[in-house]
Tm-1-like ATP-binding domain-containing protein (Paenibacillus puldeungensis), 402 residues
Amino acid sequence: MPTIAIAGTFDTKGAEFFYVKELLESLGLKTFTIHTGAYEPTFQPDVSNDEVAKAAGTDIQTVANSDRAYATEMLCKGMKKLVPELFKQGKFDGIISFGGSGGTSLVTPAMQALPIGVPKVMVSTVASGNTAPYVGTSDIVMIPSIVDVSGLNSLSVKIFSNAAFAIAGMVKFENKKVLEKKPLVAATMFGVTTPCVTAARKYLEDRGYEVLVFHATGTGGKTMEALVDAGFIEGVLDLTTTEWVDELVGGVLNAGPHRLEAASKHRIPQVVSVGAIDMCNFGPYDTVPKQFANRNLYKHNPMVTLMRTSVEENEIIGKKLVEKLQLAKEKTALYLPLKGVSAIDVEGQPFYGPEEDKKLFDVLRNGVNRDIVEVVEMDCDINDVKFAEAAAQKLIDLMNQK
């Protein structure tokens, strides 16, 4: 019988959690309760708050006598260590929690530490805002609580019930179909590099590889790096490195300072290109920073405005890519599409910029270590099928060499 872990502050929100516990058990599921509050719970949990505190190297008395910031930090630390251990011991099959900003920050780091695929549901007052700090690169399902998690009422009961039914379905109706095991390849894609990556994916799949495509919107790049770090990936087709533009120029879709590191760190074969480095991403047109008002701006859709990168910015971006490629210890290939790095960086399109691209290419040509990085220049744009298939075949060659 599947077991669902229920984690939360049973001291301040005991009635709400006990309601969900009884509901899940009425569905024929077992429950496993973990108390994350600082004080005495309203019902007996399977894992006490003292056990959580001890996992963080302290005790619950010290936590209870401290300020809120310290208490939250210690209990969060304990949960992050304890929850994955309990999962490995087979104590539960999925996990659910509820909370405001504090309760959410207490439990979601522990959820993030669980393997991808383990059902994780968080009902939260902050679920409709920026959820990146809570979800990270995991597969947590966040459900807006609508009202604060404070008492049982006609609305909160409906939300809690829906969340309980959702995780019950996740654990009870597990997909038993097993796909054929194939070597896993990670690829990065943006809307303006979709034809390239689609063609490359088909080429690889036709030759027996499974391709995971990541949308290079910040979270996508971070997630890919995390999966490479975790050992899931056997080859990386990093054709769309646009997230570095946002990191260095100030856009909204950056992937942080460690993008383009994991494959080199773990000696994973990789083929890298410069997809969508012609653009920096902002939100709606009126959100573009004032200092960029006179730049070449393009409304991609009502919610996304693109800005063409300049010669100076491409020099900076090129140097950063060189820095990251210098981390490689195994053969790596860098593919340069000389006639355009995106669908709108070709002749006749709004971001066509031969001078800007030339600066980028020159910095890369002259900067990388040719003993490790093979530079392949092709006289076509990035979305040409020839480019896509050549890059895919090169990755196959590198993986076969390894």
About this structure: The mean pLDDT is 94.
